Structures are given as C-alpha cells and as structure tokens.
From TrEMBL:
Pfam families linked to this entry: Peptidase_M15_4, PG_binding_1
Peptidase M15C domain boundaries: 104-164
Gene3D superfamilies (alphabetical): 3.30.1380.10, PGBD-like superfamily/PGBD
Lineage: Bacteria, Pseudomonadati, Pseudomonadota, Gammaproteobacteria, Enterobacterales
Annotated ranges, domain Peptidoglycan binding-like: 198-253
Signal peptide: none
InterPro entries named in the record: Peptidase_M15C (IPR039561), Peptidoglycan-bd-like (IPR002477), PGBD-like_sf (IPR036365), PGBDSf (IPR036366), Zn_M74/Hedgehog-like (IPR009045)
Coiled coil ranges: none
Protein's UniProt name: Uncharacterized protein
Amino acid sequence: MSITRYVSIPKELNAGVSPARQQTMLSLIGNPRAQYSSECQNPTNSRISAQIVTAKISRLKVTGLDRAVQSLNEVMSDIEKEVPKVFAVIGHAGMLCARFVRGSQFAISNHSWGTAIDLTLDGQLDRRGDGLVQEGLTLIAPIFNRHSWFWGAGFRTEDAMHFECSDELIRRWAAEGAFGAEIVKAARESPILSLGDRGTDVMDLQKALNKHGSLLLVDGEFGRNTLAAVMAFQAAQGLTPDGVIGEKTRKSLFGK
C-alpha cells in the first residue's frame, strides 16, 4: 500500500450520509458571520463562538465546534486501531475557517462552523477536482462514514481531502438539544434545500425542474439559476416564491 498513491474514487462511499445542507446549518446552529469572502475569518456570532473549542486529538491540534471535535476524536481513535499506517501520517490543513466555498460567492463553507476538516497524508494534500484520491483516504473514509461524517470525494467536484459532519449528524445533535431547546422541534422536521446547497439532492431537484420546462445544467449546485427556476415554479404553482424547497414545494414538484 502506498498511502499517497492516487487511485480511483471507490464506487461505494458515503452510504447513509449526505453533506450538511446550508439551510440546516443556518437554521439549527446559526449564521457564523454577517459577511463572508474567500479568505478565512473567525465567526462573529457569539452563540457559535461559545461552542468553539481548541483541543489536541492524538498528534493533531484542532479548533472547531465542540461536538465536531469530540466526534473527530472518536474517529481518530478508530483510525489508530484499524489503520495504524495511515494514522501515523495524518495531518490537517484546517478545521475552522469562515469563508465561502471555493469558487462561490453565495455558498458558505461548512468550515465556517468548524464542522469540517481538510486532511493531509504524509504532509500532502489530495489534489482537488482530478477525480482521483489518495489511497490512504479510501481506507479511512469508511470509518468517517461510520461516525456519520461525509467524505468530500462524493462532491460533484471531487474534494477528497475534505471530511465534514453530515446533515444527519448535525440534525441528530440538534434534536438532542445541543444547539438550544428551541431548536429541537426544527431538527425533527424534514430538511429543506436552498441557495448554496450541493449534492445529489440538488441534481434530482434540477432534473425535476427541467421536466417542468426549466433549462438548468444538472450540476448539483443550487446557484442563482436554480434559485430563479425554483421561484418561477413556485409562482406558477401558486406557492410562495421564496426559492426554498420545503414540504409544499417538494410535494408539488415530486408528488411526495
């Protein structure tokens, strides 16, 4: 095994977990900042800042959301036991970093909440977007998935260095009261899609909109064009044109 050798993305990955939707993060945890850029900044929302901790996990010093750091510690413990050769060379390139997703001017990176981490192996970052992944990452990804973390190799633009707390994990924490008693009920409601979301759910949305006459590129990115198409569909159906895929819009669009 060559830990940093590049191999194909595994066919089976991220079973049962999905990337954390932007609306999930905003509605259940809050907005880290009023303004973002492409540069790393700290959260200015005091409620979120109060939940940010710095801790040493094995050889790694990380700063992130308290629940995420605790979960990461459990992940790393399992990696040490199950894949010690990979564990021995794991480093990281950051966890907390309030900014936009690379290349976007509206999608907020989940690093902004300190719920994502970019890993290095033997001091090397995986090359983003080339469709190949470091072999060592393929060995630890199932362990992250088991702990309800999503692996960035599953993004439309492969980002295999990236691991983030899944939508399911964030909602579980919220349902347990981690982000306040008033949030518990909201955590149990069906998740919604909105501007800034990415993934297969967005691709399904774009395909459905195209069946209703939209001419969207099915790229899995909920950007301005998808937002406009959603609002147009909602207006045509007599729904509030807020650009958000909630229960009423989902039922009207998908029939369920």
